[in-house]
């Protein structure tokens, strides 16, 4: 393996590890990512670390400021509104492509996931199950662009989905669970129109709930004074 390809492989590995850490909530929006810390943690040189940061910048997960550093991208309420409106239109389309290809065994798994989400002990468990449910429900679609685009939108809004989950659990709102059960029923019938309608409302509800809590978009990471510009 040449030095260039070795750096590329290391950069991809570091990007995967950092992406997982961001999505799991280890780094909050606005948290600074220091190259030297990342290099030490990954046992790599600065070259693949910089490549990893560029990869995650291209995915919208990091914001790089020239001669300053890298921060986990923090969305404004307007940013989140825009991303969720895009999701409202794209994800139902992706689901329409996918539903006819879902097997009975896959649909049974979605039913198990829906029940497990209702009994999830904490937010992180719910998020893991919810991600498997929704991204799994799109797995039957064969697309050149749409699947990757939806995954990128999911990743960019992960932190705010976490915030929404805390809100609906605290308020005892069961509508999310009801939606999951309705989706499973639509999958069993092969009713793509009904599945599309339910999913649109499901995503819209999250968007509207987040709009009720603008304070979620002004939080600073604990212990940081952060010069990162908000993403626009």
TrEMBL record:
<dbReference type="GO" id="GO:0003700">
    <property type="term" value="F:DNA-binding transcription factor activity"/>
</dbReference>
<keyword id="KW-0805">Transcription regulation</keyword>
<dbReference type="Pfam" id="PF07729">
    <property type="entry name" value="FCD"/>
</dbReference>
<dbReference type="Pfam" id="PF00392">
    <property type="entry name" value="GntR"/>
</dbReference>
<dbReference type="InterPro" id="IPR011711">
    <property type="entry name" value="GntR_C"/>
</dbReference>
<keyword id="KW-0804">Transcription</keyword>
<feature type="domain" description="HTH gntR-type">
    <location>
        <begin position="8"/>
        <end position="75"/>
    </location>
</feature>
<dbReference type="GO" id="GO:0003677">
    <property type="term" value="F:DNA binding"/>
</dbReference>
<dbReference type="InterPro" id="IPR000524">
    <property type="entry name" value="Tscrpt_reg_HTH_GntR"/>
</dbReference>
<dbReference type="InterPro" id="IPR036390">
    <property type="entry name" value="WH_DNA-bd_sf"/>
</dbReference>
<dbReference type="InterPro" id="IPR036388">
    <property type="entry name" value="WH-like_DNA-bd_sf"/>
</dbReference>
<keyword id="KW-0238">DNA-binding</keyword>
<protein>
    <submittedName>
        <fullName>GntR family transcriptional regulator</fullName>
    </submittedName>
</protein>
<dbReference type="InterPro" id="IPR008920">
    <property type="entry name" value="TF_FadR/GntR_C"/>
</dbReference>
